[in-house]
């Protein structure tokens, strides 16, 4: 509910109605109102208290990069689905357990951040590995990378329905979600159409063959993906949406010259697709939830003749999501997207703790240094409107 600290005169009530109507925002407190002078309008400082979010798609890497970036996610999120595309990839439960231990050792002191591990699906993954993964109680999904689709995907699947049927059936039996990088890799398919073609050629047949298989279509980028997710009436198909695909379109790759730090896969799409994603996440649908796809790369691997795909957004993701929902007059739906829909789909409890989002301008660091170089974050050096902090 809306509340003010201190007396609120009629002018400020009008302002509040203007800012928030017709939304019913249950977790916003207007923490201060005041006149700068008798001739100036009232200013409002907003504060949102929401259930601590989770990140359902996160790259933490390993080594020095892991030690540098994990604290940024742990500061904001309670849990995260951690991607397995390391070198070598995390293809076994034993490797997932070991990687989890490395993450826990890299966390700041007294952190309660919980990494939720995943397996990297290959043409030779065995059904027994799925059983072991479920019994481990630390593996929560299996990641499908079509071979060659993105960073470290060379060991990925070459023929999902031809070579992975026994594994998929075992996943159904153990209620293990399949997390999908939804792009075909056929070089004859235009890069901007690869998600749409993947839906037609792979995902639709998969869902028809395994209607009880839980599928997360990760980092959706198109109107086609939104329509597909909404069309799956059984409730076993959902999607994560990144901050970059909500706030940037493909012009952002080229404005003012080539912008390597805006290059990610799936690549940014047309403005009509960005608008479709915004409409989907702010609609209140339970099928869409937060997944940053935060992907750190050393600056030298981004700013080079063959730059890596990936945007490092962990420090700014919540600020970006809040801005998107604010601009859509849907701040009342932000908490469900960030904190409820994901755990509900995965069958996990919602977090008990809270975080605060304050309408307080703050400047994003230009970079984050580590032993071998530095990592440039999304919105480097820019001012953002919403500042997240633990409660």
TrEMBL record:
Enzyme Commission number(s) of this protein: 3.5.2.3
Signal peptide interval: none
Keyword annotations of the record: Hydrolase, Metal-binding, Pyrimidine biosynthesis, Zinc
GO BP terms, alphabetized: 'de novo' pyrimidine nucleobase biosynthetic process; 'de novo' UMP biosynthetic process; pyrimidine nucleotide biosynthetic process
Enzyme type, top EC level: hydrolase
Alphabetized GO MF terms: dihydroorotase activity; metal ion binding
Recorded metabolic or biological pathway in which this protein acts: Pyrimidine metabolism; UMP biosynthesis via de novo pathway; (S)-dihydroorotate from bicarbonate: step 3/3
Entry superkingdom: Eukaryota
PROSITE patterns per record: DIHYDROOROTASE_1, DIHYDROOROTASE_2
CDD domains: DHOase
Database matches in InterPro entries: Amidohydro-rel, DHOdimr, Dihydroorotase_CS, Metal_Hydrolase
HAMAP family: PyrC_classII
Protein name in the entry: Dihydroorotase, mitochondrial
Gene source species: Nicotiana tabacum
Gene name for this UniProt entry: LOC107807663
């Amino acid at each position: 509910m809306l509340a003010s600290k201190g007396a609120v005169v009629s002018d400020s009530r009008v302002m509040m109605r203007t800012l928030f109507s017709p939304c019913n925002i249950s977790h916003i407190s207007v923490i201060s109102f005041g006149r700068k002078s008798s001739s100036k309008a009232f200013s409002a400082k907003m504060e949102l208290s929401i259930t601590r979010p989770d990140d359902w798609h996160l790259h933490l890497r390993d080594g020095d990069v892991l030690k540098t970036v994990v604290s940024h996610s742990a500061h904001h999120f309670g849990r995260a689905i951690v991607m397995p595309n390391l070198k070598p990839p995390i293809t076994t439960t034993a490797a997932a357990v070991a990687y989890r231990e490395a993450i826990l050792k890299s966390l700041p002191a007294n952190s309660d951040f919980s990494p939720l591990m995943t397996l990297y699906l290959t043409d030779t993954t065995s059904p027994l590995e799925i059983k072991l993964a479920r019994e481990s109680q630390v593996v929560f999904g299996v990641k499908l990378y079509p071979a060659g689709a993105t960073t470290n995907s060379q060991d990925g699947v070459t023929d999902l329905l031809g070579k992975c049927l026994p594994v998929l059936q075992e996943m159904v039996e153990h209620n293990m979600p399949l997390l999908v990088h939804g792009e075909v890799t056929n070089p004859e398919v235009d890069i901007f159409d690869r998600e749409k073609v993947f839906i037609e050629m792979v995902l639709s047949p998969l869902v028809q063959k395994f209607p009880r298989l839980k599928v997360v279509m990760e980092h959706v980028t198109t109107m086609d993906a939104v329509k597909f997710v909404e069309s799956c009436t059984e409730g076993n198909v959902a999607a994560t949406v990144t901050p970059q695909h909500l706030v940037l379109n493909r012009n952002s790759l080229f404005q003012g010259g080539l912008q390597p730090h805006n290059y990610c896969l799936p690549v940014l799409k047309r403005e009509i697709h960005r608008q479709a994603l915004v409409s989907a996440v702010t609609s209140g649908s339970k099928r869409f939830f937060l997944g940053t796809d935060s992907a750190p790369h050393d600056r030298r691997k981004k700013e080079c003749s063959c730059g890596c795909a990936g945007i490092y957004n962990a420090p700014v993701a919540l600020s970006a999501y809040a801005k998107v929902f604010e601009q859509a007059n849907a701040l009342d739906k932000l908490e469900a997207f960030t904190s409820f829909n994901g755990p509900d789909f995965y069958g996990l409890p919602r977090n008990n703790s809270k975080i605060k989002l304050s309408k307080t301008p703050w400047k994003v660091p230009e970079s984050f240094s580590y032993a071998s170089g530095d990592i440039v974050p999304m919105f480097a050096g820019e001012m953002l409107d919403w500042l997240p902090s633990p409660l």
